[in-house]
Design brief:
about 450 residues, about 70% helix, mainly alpha, globular
């Protein structure tokens, strides 16, 4: 693996200079980011191909929809319990080597599954074990891949990189879902798993050729600082940093409210469309399509951000809550479609802004653990949100859940913005490393 690049001289290259461009595609000016985007497109297509086939395989083995949900939960569960350790590992280990090894291990799991399917030795127990192993590896792979992408662009281009990543994810999902049916039809189920294995190996092969740019989020830190002591890379310190960092706590609160009482539109809008609005599956398909289009538009708009802050996320979440409440009062499908598009756009821009803050606010040697804490929190929201929303719908109906949830989001976050704001500086002393970005000055704005 190559060593970190030398620090830029005063006569820096154009790629290293902070750019005033607001183009959503500005991160693709950097060669490493272009290769990383191609690798992620291939990997996402392979992952969605496997996920699609895996659900069908579980149904084929067990005939139970509950078993399908169990396999998905088993794969997600490690994020709740192991993400803190995974984030600490990302802070301890060389970034490129960590990504290459984790991708190779994920490829090995996919090839193992393909072999078991091909020789007809797969059963539910082995599937659950392989899903759990995949989930454990992902607790390291996820934050490592996210932070490696940040190494490939200057800090001002991080929102663009995140927005491009969201578009790549959407394109990979569409391609992988479509390819799953074709692959299974012509080559069989095992071929889909093998294709996913090859996609992981492709990413692992690309990683050694990626070069961080001068001015990247952690490029200077990687070149200048000494390796932190093991005591400075503990899980406990990562938790303490997160809890004592007001802007991160505020971001968690904003995202948590939005995740639990909003965003689960696959549930709330499905009930609204098929119930009070008297639509069918086709009508909900139209709503889902509009949501997807809005998500893509939002990713493009989010990629134009240069200096997102927690306040930005809060304002967007408040607007999204108000739009959700209005959607709950929609008298017809046509009115709902008019409201669904901006709802999806606001949600997508908010996601891009929040992710940019999360990945750039902590100092470089803390980012893996912060992402680990975030992954654990997000898993709690993912597991607890749908049941809580379901109970609210049982009590208030689809319209009531959308209206009450939207007003709760807008009221709570709006009151927080008015009363205290989210830009209070953190009174936190942390062992600094040379070159670490420890404040929002690097993004040119206060949170």
């Amino acid at each position: 693996m190559s060593t970190a690049p030398a620090l830029p001289t005063p006569r820096t290259t154009p790629a290293a200079r902070p750019s005033a461009s607001r183009s959503p595609w500005r991160s693709l000016r950097h060669r490493g980011m272009r290769w990383w985007s191609v690798a992620n497109l291939v990997s996402n297509a392979g992952t969605w191909m496997q996920l699609t086939v895996q659900n069908l395989l579980v149904l084929q083995i067990t005939g139970s929809a509950a078993a399908t949900g169990l396999s998905m939960s088993v794969q997600a569960a490690p994020a709740l319990f192991v993400s803190l350790l995974g984030g600490a590992a990302v802070d301890r280990w060389p970034r490129k080597l960590t990504v290459a090894v984790s991708q190779a291990l994920l490829g090995a799991v996919a090839f193992t599954t393909a072999l078991l399917v091909a020789v007809d030795r797969i059963d539910m127990t082995s599937l659950l074990v392989l899903a759990a192993v995949t989930g454990v590896i992902a607790t390291v792979d996820g934050p490592a891949c996210a932070l490696l992408g940040n190494d490939l662009v200057p800090v001002a281009d991080v929102p663009s990189a995140i927005g491009v990543g969201a578009l790549v994810h959407s394109a990979g999902r569409l391609a992988g879902t479509a390819l799953a049916g074709v692959t299974v039809g012509f080559l069989g189920t095992s071929a889909a798993y093998a294709a996913n294995g090859l996609s992981f190996l492709f990413v692992a092969a690309v990683v050694p050729f990626l070069r961080p740019v001068a001015g990247a989020v952690r490029g200077r830190a990687a070149a200048e600082r000494a390796v932190p002591d093991k005591a400075e890379l503990s899980v406990r310190q990562g938790l303490a940093f997160f809890v004592r960092r007001p802007r991160l706590v505020a971001l968690a609160a904003v995202t948590g409210l939005s995740s639990v009482f909003g965003r689960n539109y696959g549930l709330t809008l499905a009930v609204l469309v098929t119930g009070p609005l008297a639509g069918g599956a086709g009508a909900f398909g139209t709503v889902s399509t509009v949501l997807a289009v809005g998500g893509i538009l939002g990713a493009v708009l989010g990629a134009r951000l240069r200096s997102p802050s927690v306040r930005t996320v809060g304002v967007l979440a408040t607007a999204g809550g108000l739009l959700q409440a209005a959607a709950g009062l929609s008298p017809s499908l046509a009115v709902l479609l008019v409201l669904v598009l901006p709802m999806a756009v606001v949600e997508s821009v908010s996601d891009t802004a929040g992710t940019a803050v999360l990945q750039t606010d902590p100092p470089a040697h803390m980012r893996g653990r912060v992402l680990g804490v975030w992954s654990s929190i997000g898993t709690v929201w993912g597991l607890g949100g749908p049941p809580a929303l379901g109970l609210l719908m049982e009590w208030a109906g689809a319209r009531g859940a959308l209206v009450a949830g939207g007003l709760l989001i807008a009221g709570a976050i709006g009151a927080g913005l008015v009363r205290r704001g989210v830009a209070v500086p953190a009174a936190l002393r942390l062992p600094a490393k040379d070159g670490d970005v420890t404040g929002r000055e690097a993004l040119g704005t206060a949170a």
